[in-house]
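I'm stuck. Protein, please.
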Amino acid sequence: MTDTDPRHPAPTDDAVPCPCQSGRVYENCCSPLHRGEPASTPEALMRSRYSAFVRNDTTYVAKSWHPDTRPTGLMLDDGDDWLELKVLDSDAEGDRGQVHFRALRRRDKGFSVLEEKSRFVREDGHWFYLDGDSKVSNLKPGRNEPCPCGSGKKFKKCCAA
């Protein structure tokens, strides 16, 4: 079998899994929001922001941040390797919403967990990130636990080595 075998076509960009880990492909999940479509819910916006962090898309992160709370000169750290997103809770009432999530990232040889309760507001049909209460903690997996990097190996045989 070769890459040009018509029975087994090479994957295309529209078959790439979405970084937000929704189980959908990027082209049908966060990509439309990254191109300017409004998010339907605060959770959809938060997932698209996570995908933008994974993709180091500073422009989208800034545009999805409410102008009243957006930092000036926003810079993303391209040394972060975002590995996992878990949405713990999400709701919206009227034009206000919140999302509680946990995100795992690797930086250098260490792992950390960002947990945040984010607040969102909808204006003119568009959801915006306002702010969040967040905490970052170090993750130190046990030697015999699966490695958080997703390799399928035990931590002691992978990233701890």
Q: What stands out?
A: The longest strand covers residues 110-123. Residues 22 and 29 are 8 Å apart (CA to CA). The helical segments are 31-34, 42-54, 58-63.
